[in-house]
Amino acid sequence: MITYYKNNKGLTQTENREDNCWINVVCPTKEETKFLLKELQIPEDFYNDIEDIDERPRIELENGWTLIILRIPFKSNDPKLPFNTAPLGLMFKDDVFLSLCFHQTEILKDFVLYTKRKKITIENDFDLVLKLLLSSSIWFLKYLKQINQRIKLAEDNLEESIKNEELQALWQIEKCLVFFVTSLKGNDVLFRRIKNLKAHKDTYDPELLEDVEIELRQAEETTSIYSNILTGMMDAYASVISNNLNVIMKRLTSISIILMIPTLVASLYGMNVPNVFENNPFGFWIVLSISLLVSVFGVFLFKKKNMF
């Protein structure tokens, strides 16, 4: 899908392509891919790099084109990985500014609405890049709040009963946080490279640079905190599960020993050899009583040693 946006006190959508407009491409079809490669003549290597879900953030120049790849978060339809990150490619040359993403996200639509509401004017290509980087950092924080709610829900469920489903939910969240940490670190490196570009240093808005740096740092620190909390929680529940298993095994061992006592007594008196109660009419009941008394004594002894 291709959408054109014009810069006029906020980004407004236009039906056709205009000079100095922003061309936003999401999940392109075959015809749209031909338009990008043949008519706009973007480098095919750039297109293939952005299509790779694992592509790292970076800035690159080729044939007058500037390619900037940053990582943006999105909600995934995969229940095993509810939140993930994807590369967003930003390419510009002369009067063409193009964004390309192969995953549906909420970020770009929200960014356009925000510019309309605040009547934000885009000064130049790098100004738009920095604003999109700022928006992605804010969305990282939004999704982190949702992840935190999932952690609390899984923790409440685990307090009631430790089941594999709840532990798997925590493990899935941990995977999301790993992707977030990696992507944010990549975006941070990219931001520093853009910030230190000698040819554009004097054109940046200092307040915008400060905002991007603050939001990036906050998103990184929040992700790191949640990741550490989750790791500690997983370790704690692993210890609880191990401890519960030890308690169960101890109880089962104690029960086995108690049950073995009457079996041992009955075995001794049931052998085909002469014994004290062989001719006694109450022999069976005497043996049974001895077994019960020894078993009761064993239970009392194990109880005193906290074996039950």
Automatic annotation (TrEMBL):
GO terms for molecular function: metal ion transmembrane transporter activity. It is a multi-pass membrane protein. The keyword Translocase does not apply. It is found in: Membrane. Gene3D superfamilies: CorA soluble domain-like, Magnesium transport protein CorA, transmembrane region. GO terms for cellular component: membrane. InterPro entries: CorA-like, CorA_cytoplasmic_dom, CorA_TM1_TM2, MgTranspt_CorA/ZnTranspt_ZntB. PANTHER family: MAGNESIUM AND COBALT TRANSPORTER, TRANSPORTER-RELATED. Belongs to the CorA metal ion transporter (MIT) (TC 1.A.35) family. This is Magnesium transporter CorA. It comes from Flavobacterium alvei. The lineage of its organism: Bacteria, Pseudomonadati, Bacteroidota, Flavobacteriia, Flavobacteriales.
